[in-house]
UniProtKB/TrEMBL annotation:
Homodimer. It comes from the Eukaryota. GO terms for biological process: glyoxylate cycle; malate metabolic process; regulation of fatty acid beta-oxidation; regulation of photorespiration; tricarboxylic acid cycle. It comes from Helianthus annuus (Common sunflower). NAD(+) binds at residues 33-39, 59, 119, 142-144, 253. This is Malate dehydrogenase.
Amino acid sequence: NPHKLQMEAKTVLERSNCRAKGGSPGFNVAILGASGGIGQPLSMLMKMNPLVSVLHLYDVANTPGVTSDISHMDTGAVVRGFLGPQQLENALTGMDLVIMPAGVPRKPGMTRDDLFNINAGIVKTLCEGIAKCCPKAIVNIISNPVNSTVPIAAEVFKKAGTYDPKRLLGVTMLDVVRANTFVAEVLGLDPREVDVPVVGGHAGVTILPLLSQIKPPCSFTSEEAAYLTSRIQNGGTEVVEAKAGAGSATLSMAYAAVKFADACLRGLRGDADVIKCAFVPSVVTELPFFASKVRLGRNGIEEVYTLGPMNEFERAGLEMAKKELAGSIEKGVSFASK
Ligand code: NAD
Ligand code: LMR
């Protein structure tokens, strides 16, 4: 009896809405671009996160299937799917955290900046939705080129009168994840015990690992430092070439995105000493955006840390990073202020 089935589906929906509203102490999280290479594993991992009570999956394609699939996982978060621009507002209303991996990835031979023409418009439209429907949400931007898409987001929020620099973060966590892995490999350590700060931005020479500030303290020969810096800066390209046209990093990125989103949620919950690297509005250098360590708290970014002591190799890297970043930031700002 199809009518009976429909009634049951309605009851199920009412019950899950009721559960989402009730006792659960978690947060409301939306993923924009949830059906993509990053979006799918990211959605799965966020469904497993005990700090999430409601998970909204939005994309312009395939969300009904991804949502149905993920909703069968017996974890706490209530999952809802949203398809296409006419459902964007419902996807965003009431969200505490919005994670954005929407947009096209690189193919071999492309730079991240080659994605600008397509992804800039996607990020702009999605940020207009955020400004309208959840202006107080923490926003994690993954869409490339991050060095330009974060400035675009800031301009959109400024135009809408909702800009809060404490709530806008470009996700550079994958650079830290790679740095920890590659350094651990060279030194024969467990990657879980290594923490390398990576500052600057998220493309080529703007990715600046500060190996001199590694925890636990370790020393490197100049050959080791040069090899590691280059491998960390080219980690994305290494994956793009290995995938040979099938896209860029998705699984390690989903892992890194969840590590970062979880830190944002722990900050919102009020945990002390939640510190991660991210590309954020900044006064640490003369540039308006820069990646460095930030402390996350109830309001988003509670503190942006200065870069700390650097060796000569890192200081030279910083000058190169700033030069390229200045252009990428300006490109984003001028696109969004048109
Ligand atoms: P993908 O093509 O597999 O997935 C992208 C998804 O975005 C698709 O499902 C697509 O339908 C969706 N999408 C397109 N336009 C949209 C819109 N207007 N609204 C909502 N969704 C939309 O790509 P991917 O491999 O998941 O990568 C996504 C983005 O993340 C790329 O720009 C990539 O360069 C970037 N990326 C960033 C990092 C980082 O460290 N920040 C790491 C890896 C990838
Ligand atoms: C990465 O670092 O893996 C991403 O930015 C994707 C890319 O294009 O390299």
